[in-house]
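Memo to structure team: turn this sequence into C-alpha cells by end of day. - J.P.
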Amino acid sequence: MILQITAIAGALVVPVLMALSGLLVWKFPAKNINVAYGYRTKRSMKNMDTWMFAQEYTGRLWVKLGCGLLALTLAVCFCVRGYSDDNVATTCVIMVGAQIAVMVLSTFITEHALKLNFDEDGKSRQCE
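Reply from structure team:
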C-alpha cells in the first residue's frame, strides 16, 4: 500500500510542476532575456518580442498540458486502485515517461509557433 501511494504521488509531480511552472512563466515572465529563468531557446532569445511571445505561449501551453495530464493521471490512478503494487508502480512509471514526452513535445510546439509568428531574424510576420 505504501508503494502504491508513493508511486501515485510520484506520477503527480510532473503535471503539477508543469502547470505551476507554466502559470509562473505566463503570469510573471522575466522582463529581460536571460539564461536563468523562462523559456530559453535560440529562437526565443532573438529579441524582446520573441522572448515575450515565447514566455506567454509556453506558459499557457504548460498550464493546459499540465492540467490535462493531471486529470488523465488521476483517472488512470483511480482505475488501477486495488491492483498489485507492481502493476500500480509499473503504470506510474509509464505515465511519468509519457508526461516527460509531452513536456519535450511542448518545446517543438512552441518553436513551431515562434516560426509561424517571427522570421529568422525575429521580426514579426504580422508586420509584413
